[in-house]
Amino acid sequence: MADSRFVAFDFGAESGRAMLATLSGGRLTLEDKHRFANPNGKLNGHLHWNLLSQWEGIKTGLRKATAGGVQVDGIGVDTWGVDFGLVGKGGEILGNPYMYRDSRTDGVMERTFQRVSKRDIFEATGLQFMQFNSLFQLVAMQESGSSALKAAETLLFMPDLFNFLFTGVRKCEYSITSTSQMYDPRRKNWAFDLLNQLQLPTHILPEIVPAGTVLGPIRKEVADECGVSGIPVIAPATHDTGSAVAAVPAEGDDWCYISSGTWSLMGLELPAPIINDKVAEYNYTNEGGVGGTTRFLKNIMGLWPLQECRRHWTRNGEELSYAEIANMAFASKQFGSLLNLEHRPILSPGDMPIKIENYCMQTRQTPPAGKGEMARCILESLAVTYRKTIEALEDIRGKKIRTIHIVGGGSQNELLNQMTADACGRPVITGPVEATAIGNVLVQAMAVGKVKSLAEIRQIIRASFPVKRYEPKDTAKWDSAYARFRELDV
């Protein structure tokens, strides 16, 4: 079979990149063609994404990936979840999309529960409650009398918005839609009953299509601008974690995954959603995956606190690489203070070291002394949070998890990987690092018939990319730290 080439546009909270993938003889290779910032900033006191900058980054990436006449069989976009843009009459984009950390959703979740009970919302959607879920963003716009919402013809999540710019097609892909708390995983459609109860506009919600849908060719004006011809635009699993989970090189069904980055998404791949009182109590979530699977998981504040600390230190004149920070953490004392990563102030940007110090004093712990202890505090807190999460996953499913697979950029943090194995008492297998881009392109390949199944996708990944294994050790010390962590009540 002739070689196949695909381009993945992969967005994280901090940056985006264009990756050119070649599938040849059952093996996949990746080339990093373009990286660009993914900026956000304040307009009129609210955080927004810079849509024009994002779109220019995508187009530049396409030019670089196809330079010299390289022919590609498809392109696909994946992004973070929950954020969306609004499209008005004639295809007009109605402003820069809001950024999920914007404060306009503060208190909205609690006010929504006064209109429809928390239990009824969970029963309808099976989704973890987080104040920035698309549902609460939409309610916030409704409460403020948003003129953009009133003028909107179509709501499109971020990757669907980019696909619209590429093709003119207004459709929402399953995996990204499932992060919104506006999707009913039982009926496999929008949660219309819930949305009608909240008097939200349902006429703006387009058709939902599965991961691996060919949407159509690039519009002529975009193709001409980028110097390409009618390349198929394919919706992979457009939620970045959906693509990353497709790229977990696992076999059997006794494993869990962590897609590690700004957020840590930890969970199971299941054939169907689990929606019951126990899941609601744990506040776990059912999101969509490749081949109609369910990503049953917990959204965990991942490396965000560490990223925010680094930004704080940079602003104060000390620029440190993540490798330098990891070395400082390694050299610092074990098991100082620990954090509840669901503590509300940690969600928002700015002054993270100060927030952590305040939390420690509030919980009668000694604040970290210096940058190394601060970083170690964050990493150890993340590792014991993983243990708490995996125990709940086992309780809900009633089956032992024997192996943890960590994929994504965070899998390069060897200290955190070993901490995770030690804290959880299970082997950790890391890699591939570029799981999201890999899953993106291989789902594209499945969409055009170059790959037959999700099982074949994982077979290709095992043949193409190395992994590293971490065995648990020093587990008794972690048992003591975990017991102390469970006592934190804030």
Quick overview of this protein structure:
The chain has 490 residues and is an alpha+beta fold. It has 20 helices and 21 strands. It folds into two domains: 235 residues, ATPase, nucleotide binding domain (Nucleotidyltransferase, domain 5), CATH 3.30.420.40; 209 residues, ATPase, nucleotide binding domain (Nucleotidyltransferase, domain 5, 2-Layer Sandwich), CATH 3.30.420.40.
Description:
There is one protein chain. The protein is an alpha+beta fold and 490 residues long. The protein has two domains: 235 residues, ATPase, nucleotide binding domain (Nucleotidyltransferase, domain 5), CATH 3.30.420.40; 209 residues, ATPase, nucleotide binding domain (Nucleotidyltransferase, domain 5, 2-Layer Sandwich). 40% of the residues lie in helices and 21% in strands. The strands form seven sheets. Strands 17-18-16-15-19-20-21 form a seven-stranded mixed β-sheet, sandwiched between helices. A hairpin with a 2-residue loop joins strand 4 and strand 5. Helix 10 crosses helix 18, helix 13 crosses helix 16 and helix 16 packs across helix 20. It is globular. The mean pLDDT is 96.
List keywords for this structure.
490 residues, alpha+beta, Nucleotidyltransferase, domain 5, 2 domains, seven-stranded mixed sheet, four-stranded mixed sheet, 21 strands
User: N- to C-terminal separation?
Assistant: 58 Å
Percent strand: 15-25%
Class by SSE composition:
alpha+beta
Largest sheet: 7 strands, mixed
Please give the CATH class of the largest domain: Alpha Beta
